[in-house]
Design goal:
This protein is an alpha/beta fold. 53% of the residues lie in helices and 12% in strands. It has a domain at 3-28 and 109-201: Rossmann fold, CATH 3.40.50. The protein starts with a strand and ends with a helix. The structure holds adenosine-5'-triphosphate. Catalyzes the phosphorylation of the 3'-hydroxyl group of dephosphocoenzyme A to form coenzyme A.
């Protein structure tokens, strides 16, 4: 079976930049963010559960999830947030497992490993699905500057998101491998190449 490398890091730390580079080497990338959107697409059973629980306002007229409404309902409401996560996290995990299995069983997939990119790898039980934990890490100021530039938004918004995420140390303590993404994109690519060789061998 194929090895699974779990990639995580805070907002704007470089998860996408790292996974894009692994992808250029033919490495499959499973994205937990995509899975988390798929489980609440129109027609998914989770949507019914959400509208039963939060009321019909949780759905837009066309039946899609009303994200803004839901965000408001779980903001400063820990039990509601917990309820939602208890519903969605197992569904997201199942989707991830399905995709891992698909690559594992695909004789056409030749690499020794694949990547699972997840902002909540270590905060959910998704870490149990991976063989190694790779953390992409930057100091807070770099994180803030790059994310603000990328999203063209108020630094205050990003600061609040950083404050709500688990601390750098929490991630670094659990890492098997670390990419220090303070240099250029070229430095980042070199770091990825090194890990790619390592993961392909072991
Ligand atoms: P999010 O958690 O928000 O999805 P992310 O961890 O995927 O973010 P990226 O989007 O990969 O982070 O990187 C954040 C921004 O910083 C992007 O605009 C990216 O192009 C830029 N960036 C990443 N690494 C570097 C680097 N080494 N040098 C310069 N810019 C970088």
């Amino acid at each position: 079976p194929v090895k699974v490398i779990g990639l995580t890091g805070g907002i704007g730390s470089g998860k996408t930049a790292v996974s894009d580079r692994f992808a250029t080497h033919g490495i499959a990338v499973i994205d937990a963010d995509i899975a988390s959107r798929e489980v609440v697409e129109k027609g998914e059973p989770a949507l019914n559960r959400i509208s039963e629980h939060f009321g019909s306002e949780a759905l837009l007229e066309d039946g899609a999830l009303n994200r803004a409404y839901l965000r408001k309902r779980i903001f400063d409401a820990p039990e509601e947030k917990q309820w939602l996560e208890a519903l969605l996290h197992p569904l997201i995990r199942d989707r991830i497992i399905q995709q891992i299995n698909r690559f594992s069983q695909d004789p056409e997939y030749k690499p020794a490993y694949l990547l699972l990119v997840s902002p909540l790898l270590l905060e959910t039980n998704q870490w149990e699905l991976v063989d190694r934990i790779l953390v992409v890490d930057v100091p807070r100021e770099v994180q803030l500057a790059r994310t603000t530039a990328r999203d063209n938004c108020d630094p205050k918004t990003i600061e609040a998101i950083i404050a709500a995420q688990s601390p750098r140390d929490f991630k670094l303590e659990r890492a098997d491998d670390i990419i220090e993404n303070t240099g250029s994109l070229n430095d980042l690519h070199n770091a990825v190449e090194k890990l790619h060789n390592q993961y392909n061998q072991a």
